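Please decode residue identities from the backbone states below.
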């Protein structure tokens, strides 16, 4: 309820003003529109939806069947250095192992097709800044940093040890992207949307310029803010029953809100979630530091929620409705 209320409040700005594409929604909408409505092109046996369905089914069969039957030809090389999601991971004996900033290459066509729905400026910045990261990582390696990376494979270049791509000196990319970047993205977005947010508050109070446009909203702003306040109180009460004190519960809800406001911007623009790897614990530690050298139950539980349910991936979190 808490995050549905936030979505209701920001819906008009996201959809009507900023035109955030939400690629997955576009796919679902176009699929429904192309198969319903009685148009002549939807009545044909061979139409874009049917073609896509056949191609997608054939692809899934060619990927899934080799995993079940060893004798079936592995056309996509899914049994060779491939993670379940379709990432070809770089092994230590690979010719690409010398590229320090490279861990995986994705060969899943579904992700490529979704990328076609992302704005070109987003795609350009993604590629450009990743190339910059590769160059900086290679330069740092020549100066004696990231020396353990060539001996690691695939995801191990991310997670295994402290001298890895996101965590190693001198850049510590996780601090820039997953902690500072998320916080900055949320703060700047709220700052740029401050006039709109104030207008929604005025509409909730029965005045302002949004009273007329509010008629097109699924829920009135007054009810959305009531839902936000009530669900916030219920969240505090629920978290308190687990052994988390009110201060930690308040900080946890704040951290979760920060992470998912940033996450929904990224997900809405490119169709991919930005996994933090539990970096929300760092922000939680800043807002709610441990009082002693031996953290109590409240601090331990709140850190666990901040690291997994609050900030790891949307499918893990209780903030998923956003």
């Amino acid at each position: 309820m808490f995050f549905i209320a936030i979505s209701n409040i920001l819906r008009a700005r996201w959809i009507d003003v900023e035109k955030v594409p939400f690629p997955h929604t576009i796919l679902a909408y176009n699929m429904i529109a192309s198969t319903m409505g009685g148009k002549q092109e939807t009545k044909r046996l061979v139409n874009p939806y049917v073609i896509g369905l056949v191609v997608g089914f054939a692809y899934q069969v060619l990927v899934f069947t080799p995993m079940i039957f060893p004798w079936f030809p592995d056309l996509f090389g899914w049994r060779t250095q491939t993670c379940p999601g379709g990432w070809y991971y770089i092994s230590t004996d690979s010719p690409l192992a010398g590229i320090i900033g490279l861990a995986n290459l994705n060969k899943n066509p579904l992700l490529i097709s979704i990328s076609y729905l992302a704005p070109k400026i987003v795609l350009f910045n993604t590629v450009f800044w990743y190339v910059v990261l590769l160059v900086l990582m290679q330069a740092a390696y020549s100066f004696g940093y990231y020396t353990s990376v060539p001996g690691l494979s695939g995801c191990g270049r991310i997670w295994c040890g402290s001298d890895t791509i996101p965590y190693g000196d001198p850049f510590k990319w996780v601090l820039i992207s997953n902690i500072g970047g998320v916080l900055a993205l949320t703060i700047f977005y709220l700052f740029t949307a401050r006039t709109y947010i104030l207008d929604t508050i005025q509409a909730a109070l029965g005045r302002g310029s949004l009273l007329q446009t509010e008629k097109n909203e699924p829920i009135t702003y007054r009810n959305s803010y009531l839902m936000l306040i009530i669900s916030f109180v219920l969240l505090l009460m629920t978290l308190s029953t687990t052994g988390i004190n009110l201060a930690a519960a308040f900080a946890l809800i704040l951290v979760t809100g920060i992470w998912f406001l940033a996450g929904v911007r990224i997900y809405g623009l490119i169709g991919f979630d930005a996994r933090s790897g539990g970096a929300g614990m760092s922000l939680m530690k800043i807002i709610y530091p441990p009082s002693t050298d031996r953290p109590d139950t409240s601090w331990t539980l709140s850190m666990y929620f901040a690291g997994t349910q609050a900030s790891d991936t949307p499918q893990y979190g209780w903030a998923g409705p956003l």
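Observation: The two ends are 10 Å apart (CA to CA).
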